[in-house]
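Posting for a labmate who doesn't have an account.
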Amino acid sequence: AGFLQARPARWFTQKQLQENPVQGGGWCSPASQFQLIYALDTLAGNSERTASSIVLDADQWNFLETSFAAAFGTDRGLPRYLRNKPPEPGPELRRRLALIDESLLSAALGELIDSGGRRAILKRRDLLLELPAAAVR
C-alpha cells in the first residue's frame, strides 16, 4: 500500500515560480500547459489542487501535476480553485474532449472507476465544453 512519486532532477513548484519568476523555453507555452492542467483537474474532479502541487521541470519546461488524493469523486462542477477563473479550452482541446464517451471511459478505466464516477467525468466534460472558448492569440 502506498504511492510512488518521481520528480525531475531540477524542478520548481508553481508557488516558488510565483514568488521568484524565471524565464525558460519549452515546446509548449505555459498558458497552454495550464489549460491542459485545468482540463485534467476538471475531468478528474480534483478539487484540492494547490500551487505547491504543480511542478515545473526546469530542464524541459514542462509542468507536471502531483496530488490526486481528492480526485475522482462524484462532484459535477469545476474544482474550487477554478470557479473564479474558469478554464478556456481551445479548439483542439474541445475536439478531444468531445471524443470522450462512456465506452472510451469504460475501456480506459475498467473497474477502477464505477459507472457513477464515469458519469460524473462525462458531466464535468460537458461543463468544460460549455465554457467560453479561449481567445485566438
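Reply:
Got it, the C-alpha cells are right above this. The beta strands are 11-13, 54-57, 62-65.
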